[in-house]
Write a structure and sequence with these properties.
- It contains 22 helices and no strands.
- The chain has 522 residues and is mostly helical.
- It has a single domain, classed as Amino acid/polyamine transporter I.
- α8 runs antiparallel to α16.
- The longest helix is centred in the N-terminal third of the chain and has 38 residues.
- The N terminus and C terminus are likely disordered.
- It is a multi-pass membrane protein.
- One of its GO terms (cellular component) is membrane.
- Keywords: Membrane, Transmembrane, Transmembrane helix, Transport.
- It comes from Mycena albidolilacea.
């Protein structure tokens, strides 16, 4: 163990206990534990980036019904995501490792199926974290285009120009992840304050200016016009539930488990608390906008397809005012890009550590000379994959946009698998979890699995009918394509080299906070 890390562990008994728990799960402590409860909670909220996550897909929600879909869809998504957060928190508390969901599948499944289940889950996780990080970095680049549209309304941005902006955004995230890892917990705190103050500023400014006029409560909370989508009213509402994208990465915080002071306690609380906090943030962000919403056809006619900048400009009545509010959302997007890229790199590193990806020895190393220890090669691998996938945008924006849906589908499936396995085992494995759900566990787990499966359907559907090559949703095609590639790789290499996560050490002694009766569920 690195000298400074050893000193830190001596100074903080929690680190000693956490390292012992990690060794019981089959891993050695390699990362520096630098995050407490609020650090990891703020990182979870940074990854959610609620105002950014709600603003980025707002055009689809406007097409799919308008105010009713936006506000009540957010309520529905928040309440259906909470059971999933509780279910993940319960499992994460028992197995707090950066390996995350694929490790949970390995420990919860039967010996006959655990290897295949963990392989499938691991690749779902990998594709999910790479594409969700890509969606944020590329979405932030598109947000920059939207901001430029405030001052350059006639500028028709070319795909290669958007890609260059994407390269710049990605470069910033890599610089922070590589050279400023030691201050990332502080950056997450700054992100929380930026988001809180930003939402307050937007609420006040939008409510005071309302340059395009004010709507009645009946319009802001009850107007529903799904006709632009071409779908039937009921299904149009569900198609507009793209705010589910905001909560799609809640489980990624598990990848940071080995950098948290007390992960068995802090991680589940961060995952669960983030949902009500995110819900309230979204309400305070959306409600004033809906009461001052500009003309819908004008917003939907924006050339870039991203109406956020123009929307704020019209509400504020000036380009400067619109740009100021846009800059708040842009800042939230950049904080999100940094945090989610960090988490994606940890997930990549953990999967490589278990020999599940090509050249795993290279990508499983931890560079101890940078920022107290970072998985540098895993960071670079995750970044290169995003850059290569981003090239697809040069050929087809419609095919590229499928990656947003694929990210939600992969991550949702990866979260649902361990919950479903635990449910099939009648939740016997969770009896000694440090974060028990008790009698509420069964219904919460069931709702979580059903909601995750329903998301697979939602994010496979096109936003409008009839479909064209541009409006077609290729998410299901890309999802199946990645699944096929992972299956082929399993038969070519995985079944010979992948042995699954390390089994727990047999001779370790539980520390004073553990349940000595904990059994090995395999």
């Amino acid at each position: 163990m690195h000298d400074s890390e050893t000193t830190a562990h001596r100074a903080n008994p929690q680190h000693t206990y956490a390292a012992a728990d990690l060794e019981k799960m089959g891993y050695k402590q390699e990362m520096t534990r630098s995050r407490g409860l609020f650090h990891i909670l703020f990182m979870t909220l940074a990854i959610m980036a609620v105002p950014y996550g709600l603003a980025a897909p707002i055009a689809t929600s406007l097409v799919a019904g308008g105010p009713v879909t936006i506000i009540w869809g957010w309520v529905v998504v928040s309440f259906l995501t909470l059971p999933l957060a509780c279910s993940l928190g319960e499992i994460c508390a028992k197995y707090p490792t950066s390996a995350g969901a694929y490790y949970w599948c390995f420990r919860l499944a039967s010996p006959r199926r655990r290897l295949l289940f963990s392989w499938i889950n691991g690749w779902l996780t990998m594709v999910g974290v790479w594409t969700i990080a890509l969606s944020v970095t590329f979405g932030t680049a598109q947000l920059i285009v939207a901001g430029a549209g405030i001052y350059l309304p006639d500028w028709v941005v070319k795909p290669w120009q958007t890609y260059l902006i994407f390269l710049a955004v990605t470069s910033v995230t890599v610089i922070f992840c590589v050279f400023f890892n030691s201050i990332l917990p502080t950056i997450d705190v700054i992100s929380a304050y930026w988001t809180l103050l930003g939402v307050i500023v937007i609420l006040v400014c939008v409510s005071v200016k309302a340059a395009t006029g004010r709507h009645s409560a009946a319009f802001a909370l009850g107007h529903f016009d799904p006709s632009p989508s071409g779908w039937t009213p009921g299904w149009a509402f569900f198609i507009g539930l793209l705010p589910a994208y905001t909560f799609s990465a809640i489980g990624m915080i598990a990848s940071m488990a080995e950098e948290v002071h007390n992960p068995s306690s802090d991680l589940p609380r961060a995952i669960v608390w983030s949902i009500p906090i995110g819900f309230l943030t979204g309400i305070f962000f959306l409600v004033p906008i809906l009461f001052t919403l500009p003309d819908l056809p004008t917003l939907l006619a924006v050339a870039s397809g991203q109406p956020v900048g123009v929307m704020f400009e019209l509400i504020m009545g000036s380009k400067g005012g619109g740009f100021g509010l846009w800059f708040i959302i842009f800042g939230i997007g950049m904080f999100c890009a940094i945090s989610i890229s960090c988490a994606a790199s940890r997930a990549t590193w953990a999967f490589a550590r278990d020999a599940a990806i090509p050249f795993h020895n290279t990508f499983a190393t931890v560079n101890k000379t940078l920022s107290g220890g970072i998985p540098l090669n895993a960071i670079l691998l995750s970044t290169v994959i995003q850059l290569l996938l981003g090239l697809i945008y040069l050929g087809s924006s419609a095919a590229f946009n499928a990656f947003v849906g694929v990210a939600v589908m992969c991550l949702g499936s990866s979260y649902a698998m361990p919950v479903a396995i635990s449910l099939a085992n009648q939740r016997k494995d969770m009896a000694d979890s440090p974060f028990p759900l008790g009698h509420a566990g069964t219904p919460l787990n069931a709702i979580a699995v059903v909601w995750a499966m329903f998301e697979l359907v939602l994010f496979s559907m096109p936003a409008v009918l009839p479909t064209t090559p541009t409006t077609m949703n290729y998410a299901s095609v890309v999802f199946v394509g990645f699944a096929f590639i992972s299956a082929v790789w399993y038969f070519i290499s995985g079944r010979y080299h992948y042995k699954g996560p390390s089994l727990p050490a047999e001779n370790s002694t539980p520390h004073q906070d553990e349940n000595p009766a904990e059994k090995k569920e395999l």
